[in-house]
Amino acid sequence: MNPVLELQKIHKEFPGIVANDQIDLTLNRGEIHTILGENGAGKSTLMNIISGLYIPDSGSMFLEGKPLHLKNPAQAIAKGVGMVHQHFMLIPNHSVSENIILGTPQAFRLQKSKVRQQIEELGRRYGLEFNPDLRVQDLSVGEQQKVEILKVLFRGAKILILDEPTAVLTPQESEALYKILRQMKKDGQSILFISHKMREVIELSDRITVLRHGKVKATRNRGETSPSELARLMMGESTIQTGEVQTKTSKASSDQSQNKTIVRLKNAGLRHELGHWLLQNINLEVRAGQIVGLAGVAGSGQAPLAEVLVGLRGLDTGEYQFAGEEQKGASVSELIHKGVGYIPEDRKRYGIAPHLEVAENFLLRDLHNNRFQSRGWLQRDKVTAFGRDRMRAFDVRAASERTPIGQLSGGNMQKVILARETSRPLKFLLAAQPVRGLDIHATAFLQNQLLQARADGLAILLISEDLEELLLMSDYLYVISRGSIVGEMPKEEAEIEKIGLLMTGERA
Amino acid sequence: MTTPEILTIILTTAVTMGTPLLFATLGGVLSERAGVIHLGMEGIMLVSALVTFVVDLQTGSKVLALIGAMMAAGALSGLHGFVCISLRGNQIASGLALALFGTGLSGLFGDALIGSTVTSLDRIPIPGLELIPILGSAFFNQDWMVYLSYVLVAGLWFMLFHTNWGLQIRSVGEAPIVCDALGLSVAKIRFLCVIFGGMLIGLGGAYFPMVLTSFWVDDLTAGRGWIAVALVIFAFWHPGKALWGAYLFGAAIAFQLQAQVMGLKIPSYILEMFPYLLTIVVLTVVTVRNRRAGQTFMPAALGLPFFRGDKH
Questions:
Q1: Contact A269, A282 (CB under 8 A)
Q2: What is the mean pLDDT of residues A335-363?
Q3: Is B3-120+146-292 assigned to CATH 2.160.10?
Q4: Which of A92, A260, A268, B95 has the lowest tally of Cβ within 10 angstroms?
């Protein structure tokens, strides 16, 4: 064993959340070490610490046995730690060679032919060949990633960190990347690989470390583990912590199959503007008085599906029926009028207007009706009274109803959004990641409100990447992967392992 | 007059009238390549014209006058840099404020200068080259500031596209986040470009008392700073194209002056409008053509203050 990088008791907290909890990790020379974990498990925080973007609260790092203190990414680069970000750090308008040499010591007058030669030589060694004079914007995503890798190698990196590198690649491009990484490994490079794709992790890694809730759950050597064990380590045992959620009080009526279908997608398909499919063959049903969960890793098609359901996008194929009526070309406001509510995933960007008062945020859904206006004049007293009432009912903690909502905590913000959506005649609520990032009390409060709404007959589609939350809340589950529904089951038949494998693209 | 004679006069005047535009456009190109919009050109040109005039009157030294003008322009641009880079203020607002401030300042102190005169720079023919028919006397029988502008065009072009500095400057204007992650100081590079760019704009202002008018009038630059703002865009942020753009507008001004001299029956107000009308037409054509081609030459981060992306 020849450790290149050692982490000891790395600890990092953000307000209200422990992102990394006493993490120990060793990276050996010439190994590919994968960090596996769900979203929010603390992978990115850890990588950002290693690449100098974050400074840990406590703990120490050693590079080739010597203590490593990083204050910024530039220092990490200088020490030989190179990061290939998920979102490429390239300048589209500049050539490949300009991107690669930027920030490295160069002669005052750029020696373009010399630089080209260096890049081609380095590229040949690892199979990363392309014309250094091309502009980055003319390259495919896979090629851009190769430029990123070359950029890191050009700086003499000893450690290469790749953050979900295959998330944006086609299967063929991924294969090419594995080949490059194996070649680099042979050459003595050490690679930290971040992923949540089971198959590639098992195929590629020499060692796998599983993170969960900011802690190291286990480290396994190549060949000593199985996809199902990793899935269990990653997502947790299927022990459902009831916490403060009063599941019993809101027990749904036993036979929901008799309930009216509110939302139905039939063979729904949606294309990206560039032509490829975002969604394909989606068949999905949500009944009144039912919470339907949609499981899937981030970016599997949840966002476009949500946009279809609330009317932001129209389907290219198939049908969207709402309360029995076809909704071809229905606008957002028509669907609002028909009783669609929406808790968007990115609540700060799409859920609120941060500089407006809490009370004003309550009426964002009612701007095109007369609920709070009379002959075009806003009725301030009505707005204030309504705001005060809703704040009390939903336990929103803010200085007053006139406080700008941007100053509230995430939990209180989310309560305002939920209150706004449910305080009007509603048939269907789309809740995307409603409790992500919230503390335990706000989480329990919101989950109870959703269960209560279900008991009152609301149809709810719950989109989440947290399987425990889905199993706790849902009556019926769908699993989405690469834009298609790959599995569905009633809650009674749902097992965390099976869903986990479906989510990661494996066949159960 | 024969046609070649008229052509020579128009071309010579085009170069003379285009030179202050060229200096200012080069300054704008440098500043905007690094990502900072410079709308304050008119104000900076007026103040540096004023400083040139005063220093020339007091010392009689053209070189000292030019140094003074560049220092004043650099200082004003430094102020713009402070607002836009350090405080991350709105670049448009800061630029407009600077333009108005400079105009007011030059008006205030310029009043006392009305009635004084300074000498203009002599023409220095370049042996051999000046004998080229028509073009020779237009381009190579000029004052030394014109020759300085040629050197600056070539120098700025070389610096931007063939040196490591240039790569860093262009990168900061395209993607400051990338530069920051690679350990470059975005603020330092932008400051240097704004200040040196401002000094070049100052040369444009200085050219008025140095060559164009030997006496002080209020609003000496007469809106040429605004034409330079447009020229930066027209030139696609490229020093070489700035040269042709500046002379094209110089020719428009020359044509207007010549038409007045020749007594064409067009109202003088319309003739005076001509260069500014041309600005609008050219900008529209250039923008539409670029949009059709799906191409933009504008630095991607132009006008955007840089914040280090702390996520939490």
A1: yes
A2: 90
A3: no
A4: A260
Rounded to 5 degrees, φ, ψ at A217 are -85, -40
Q: What is the pLDDT of residue B142?
A: 92
pTM, full prediction? 0.73
DSSP string, B186-223: HHHHHHHHHHHHHHHHHHHHHHIIIII-SB--TTTTTT
Which residue, among A71, A93, A97, would best test binding to B if mutated, counting the most B CBs under 10 Å from its CB?
A: A93
Q: Does A73 touch chain B (CB under 8 A)?
A: yes
Tokens 């859920």 label which residue? A351
Residues in chain A closer than 8 A to B170 (CB atoms):
94
Q: For B164, which of A73, A74, A108 is closest by C-beta distance?
A: A108
* Contact A157/B at CB under 8 A: no
CA–CA separation, A335 and A312 (whole Å): 10
Q: Nearest residue on chain A to B182, judged by CA atoms?
A: A74
Q: How far is B310 from chain A (nearest CA, A)?
A: 9
Residue indicated by tokens 């809106």: B223
Give contacts of A 90-129 with B, CB under 8 A.
90-94, 98, 101-103, 106-110
* CB count in 10 Å sphere of residue A281: 15
Confidence of residue B295 (pLDDT cuts 50, 70, 90): low
Tens-digit pLDDT profile for residues A235-245: 765 433 434 44
H or E segment at B62? Answer: helix B62-81
Q: Which CATH superfamily is domain A3-235 in?
A: P-loop containing nucleotide triphosphate hydrolases (3.40.50.300)
CATH architecture of A259-339+425-508: 3-Layer(aba) Sandwich (3.40)
